[in-house]
Design brief:
By secondary structure, the chain is an alpha/beta fold. The chain is built from ten helices and ten strands. The strands form two sheets. It has an eight-stranded mixed β-sheet with strand order 2-1-10-7-3-4-5-6. This is 5-formyltetrahydrofolate cyclo-ligase-like protein COG0212 isoform X2.
């Protein structure tokens, strides 16, 4: 499968990952979409939006948090079971995920919701990364952007709607529905930010089904870890990014040429000057080097603009 993969960074320039990088390791085709056989992925695609029903924000959020807690508990149990079984081919993935989650919490580079374990982790600079994404030609030229529903990509969803683009986003874990479409024309200026939340998508979005005729020009996904050399990524371990990708392929909404974007830290692009300004990144770099026994690279030197200099 050929993918055009880009990575977005909160503190440094953009870089391209090789065109043939595989970022979605489970996305083999042809793909069979049989949701009834798996309780985990069982849901009903309901495309009827009942405008006569008043949306209960509090009830929705309470149920979402309850289901989140159940999912996190299940993932923790799966992680422990698969990590202990050294013969399990998925064990190494959980080791990497736990290392990232633990580091983010220990170094305090995580942001709400916390703890970040068993989530697509929110991180310091997530909004800056989103703003940099909006400068990409791939984003500027996109008419429809599919964005994951996680917190670190909330600003991406806002910029998509604020830029007059069509936003395609799934309900969390696909448990309350399928994909929903939102457009700025469906919203008032005062509701755009709310529409970027999970409850807002359920409240204002237009549910679509598998027979929807839609073209997605750009996919934005969250990650726990990314290999900058190959573009291979790890999510939180539930496989929803791959499932969503497969469904979009089934619908004909995307193909091999559809760009896929994610975010993270690319040390080769981080200059010594920028690193010297961000103490938490220096600590993170040092800790990773101590744990791995390998020295991380540093980007080329740069002259920072005066507005980026800290006063002493």
């Amino acid at each position: 499968m050929e993918l055009h993969v880009l990575r977005i960074f909160s503190a440094f320039p953009f870089t391209s990952i090789p065109k043939h990088s595989r970022i979605l390791s489970k996305s083999h085709f042809p793909i069979s979409l049989n949701f009834s056989d798996s309780p985990q992925f069982s849901f009903k695609v309901d495309c009827q939006k009942r405008n006569d029903v008043v949306f209960d924000d509090a009830a929705y959020e309470a149920e979402r948090h309850r289901l989140d807690a159940e999912a996190h508990k299940a993932m923790a149990e799966t992680s422990e079971r698969e990590t202990q079984d050294q013969e399990d081919p998925k064990a190494w993935k959980w080791v990497i995920r736990k290392r990232i989650w633990d580091l983010m919490e220990a170094q305090n580079i995580a942001q709400f919701p916390r703890p970040v374990h068993h989530r697509i982790p929110n991180f310091l600079g997530a909004s800056v990364a989103a703003n940099k994404l909006s400068e990409l030609e791939e984003f500027k030229g996109a008419k429809c952007v599919k964005v994951n529903p996680d917190t670190p990509q909330k600003q991406v969803r806002f910029l998509t709607l604020d830029g007059g683009k069509k936003l395609l986003t799934p309900q969390p874990r696909l448990r309350t529905g399928f994909f929903s479409v939102l457009e700025s024309s469906m919203l008032s200026p005062g509701t755009i930010k709310e529409a970027c939340t999970s409850a807002g998508v359920a409240k204002y979005g237009r549910p679509i089904g598998l027979d929807e005729k839609i073209q997605v020009d750009l996919i934005v996904i969250g990650s726990v870890a990314v290999d900058p050399r190959t573009g291979a990524r790890l999510g939180k371990g539930e496989g929803f990014a791959e499932l969503e990708y497969g469904m979009l392929r089934y619908m004909g909404a995307i193909d091999d040429s559809t760009p896929v974007v994610t975010s993270g830290i690319y040390w080769e692009k981080l200059s010594p000057e920028k690193l010297s300004q961000i103490r938490i990144l220096r600590q993170l770099k040092s800790k990773i080097e101590q744990e791995t026994g390998q020295k991380l690279p540093t980007g080329p030197s740069e002259k920072l603009p005066p507005t980026a200099q800290r006063r002493r």
